[in-house]
Amino acid sequence: MSVEGRTLLDVTAILTEERRSEAERILIRREYHRRLCAEHPAYFLQFVECVDAKTGDRFDFDLLSTEEAAEIGIEDHEPGGWYWQRELLDEWLAYDRWVGLKARQIGVTWLAAGLALQRAVFRPGVRILIVSTNEGEAQKVIARIWGMFQSLPDYLREHLIVTKPSRGGDPSQEIEFRHPDMRKTSIIALPSTKKAGHGETANLVILDEGAYQDYLRDSWKATFPTIDGGGQIIVISTGNGVSNPSTGEGNYFHFLWVNGDSMGLKKRFLAWDLHPKRDEDWYTKNANALPPIERAQQYPRDPEDAFLSTQPCWFDLEKLGWYSKEARLQPLYRISFKPDVHNPGKMRGTKHEFGEVRVYEAPRADRRYAIGADVATGRGTDFSAAYVVDLQEMSFAAEFHSKIDPDLFADYLWTMGRWYHDAWIAVELGGGYGDSVITALRDGKKGRKAYAKLYRHSSEIRMEKQVNATYGYPMTQRTRPIVINGMEQAIRDRAIPALPDGLISECRTFVARETLPSPRAQDGANDDRVFAAGIALEMFRRYGHHEHKTRHNETHAPKERRWVGID
């Protein structure tokens, strides 16, 4: 700026005006930053600094694209190896019920703590609840959040008054802010206890390391109602087996993971190699130093690794591993059926992300089908399950899995059976609720005809004769081994083209037991899918296409048969 020919008063006025303009630009830029940070936590977390308590190293989040970074004045930014966390963060914003199975030390708890802080800073009046395995871990999470808050630029936190901790101390369990409108926001960290979360109303609940919480089931039940008021639950954990018979720990997280799809939970598996500094050399040097079970739990390659059991699996684990990696069924879409209000007796299907029916192959005009069904009460920990099997090639065309009342399960079976070209339906009898489903399928109520192709079980050698036989498939000491062993052989021989995720998981926790009935699900696990799929495969054995099937009359069998040629 040239000051030639200007008076001192003129120069002072010009400098004052430029300073005022620069101050206004700074205020405008800061207000723009505040707006972006309030709209999305990825921007907010770009302004915090984290300190690793183990190493003392400082680190930042990497959550912005090149264009987003430029919006807040960061030029020439390129997303790095941690940018995968942005997709995870966006997923949390999109779903109110989320369950994550993760490897150790990939920064997921840090990210959840950052989300909690962003929500507390920009949402007056909300409460955030974090439940950890014990008091010490709860205090560590609070310390992380407090450190991130203190690292914020003044203009992102100057609108808040810290009411807890008081007098400049460090928080032990709770952080509380008062907003300009006098509403208070709090972040509370609690150890896992039987009463943790009871009576608390929260906008966000984070259940950290859920598989290691002794009272995860109680905390889940206590905090789940928060969703009804627009809240959110995030469950994060590494694996911890299926259950510990002494303490019960770990089993409810496994239950949530395996059955989450049927409970409307969004699930995500986060493997060990998401850490940008980990590769196979790292795995060989570090993870392989751990015992196999602990290595699989802490640094899993897939979800099945994380839940390895010390009890002997009934099915061939090598073959299950092959299915998991090479032949894992993924649904084309999911669908829910509801009564058609305009057409009594008919059902209308709607595609939905959390639909009870997973469709792997739509009905084909040139195929015949059968359905195997396992019935639960709809109110306990068990689920009702059903599989549609293609009678031409032993492939699973559709799967049902949900907690549902028996009469409503009958609606689904009736609809699925008709949809898949009047498929045979075999309903398990054994727990008492199968009779209710069969009655609903046969009573002709709800404006529909009785289902015609209900399986009727006969103990005769010639399976085609079912005159006066009982409706349904009785699960007895004689028939149970037929179902289980038939499925074991089909998996061992890889005769089934592909298996769905949930069935693979249940097969891995279906184990030999010291008490009867054996085999059965490991403590803390379910086997609804196993028996539904096993009955479906039994229907294939009875009615399906068998390329080398030979019929003969047992009564007049020849005295000598040469089945094997020996040279």
What does this molecule look like?
- The protein has 567 residues and is of the alpha/beta class.
- The chain is 34% helix and 18% strand.
- Strand 1 (50-51) and strand 2 form a beta hairpin.
Q: How many domains make up the 3D coordinates?
A: 2
The number of distinct β-strands equals 24
First and last CA, distance: 107 Å
Q: Main β-sheet: number of strands, strand sense, barrel status?
A: 8 strands, mixed
CATH architectural name of the largest domain: 3-Layer(aba) Sandwich
Overall form: elongated
Binned strand content: 15-25%
Mean pLDDT: 87
Radius of gyration: 30 Å
Estimate the helix proportion, in percent. 25-40%
* Discrete helix count: 17
Uncertain regions spanning at least 5 consecutive residues:
552-567
CATH class of the largest domain: Alpha Beta
Structural class based on helices, strands and sheet pairing:
alpha/beta
Physical arrangement of strands within the biggest beta sheet: 5-6-7-4-8-9-3-10
CATH topology heading of the largest domain: Rossmann fold
CATH superfamily caption of the largest domain: P-loop containing nucleotide triphosphate hydrolases
